[in-house]
Amino acid sequence: MNITNRINELLDEAKKKTGTQSDYKLAQVLELTTQNISEYRHGRVKPDAYACARIAAAINKDPMELIAEIEGETAKSQAKRDFWKSFRSFGRHVTLGLLLLGMWNGSENAHAIGHTDTPATTSHNLYYVK
Q1: % of the chain with per-residue pLDDT over 70
Q2: What's the Rg (C-alpha) of the chain?
Q3: Burial degree of 69 (CB within 10 A; 0-12, 13-18, 19+)
Q4: pLDDT, greater one: 104 or 6
Q5: Are 37 and 26 in contact, with CB atoms under 8 Å apart?
Q6: Could you read off the pLDDT of 1-56 as tens digits, one per residue?
Q7: Dihedral Cα 23, 29, 32, 36, nearest 10 deg
Q8: pLDDT at 30
Q9: For 60, left (φ over 0), alpha (ψ -120 to 50), or beta?
């Protein structure tokens, strides 16, 4: 898929999720300029890390995943494109691993205290990063 088309999809998704009807309103919600939105839509400029983070927050997506997606398609060198593409793949595996670890750990703790229907109290935290 063309990166400009993908960016337009992301901006349209952000409009839908934020309930905005125009790019002007979307720019306000994302704290970007209407000129930025126009430049992204027409492929003249790619979103920078800040814009990617703002768009990602609006669509409930991991900002690093979005940054990696954009960079993986637009980086000037093949080595950089390959890095960002592998970064996206690696990030998905880490997220899945942490999720499974949390499910396994929570289940084991519940059995250890003799309860399987109530959450176990532990002294550590597990953060899920999507």
Answers
A1: 68
A2: 19
A3: buried
A4: 6
A5: yes
A6: 799 999 999 999 999 999 999 999 999 999 999 999 999 999 999 999 999 999 99
A7: -20
A8: 97
A9: left
Task: Tell me the one-letter amino acid at 10.
Answer: L
Separation between Cα atoms, residue 106 and residue 101, nearest integer Å: 8
Q: Is the pTM of this model over 0.90?
A: no
Q: Tokens at residue 22, please? A: 């125009």
DSSP state of 22: S
pLDDT at 129: 61
Enter the tokens of residue 85. Answer: 């593409």
Orientation of helix 63-74 relative to helix 78-112, angle to 10°: 160
Question: DSSP alpha helices (H): ranges in the chain?
Answer: 3-18, 23-30, 34-41, 49-58, 63-74, 78-112
**Higher pLDDT, residue 98 or 45:** 45
Total count of residues recorded for the chain: 130
Longest dimension (CA), the chain: 61
Can you tell me the distance from the alpha carbon of 24 to that of 35, in angstroms, rounded to the nearest whole number? 9
What whole-number distance in Å separates Cα of residue 14 and Cα of residue 47? Answer: 14
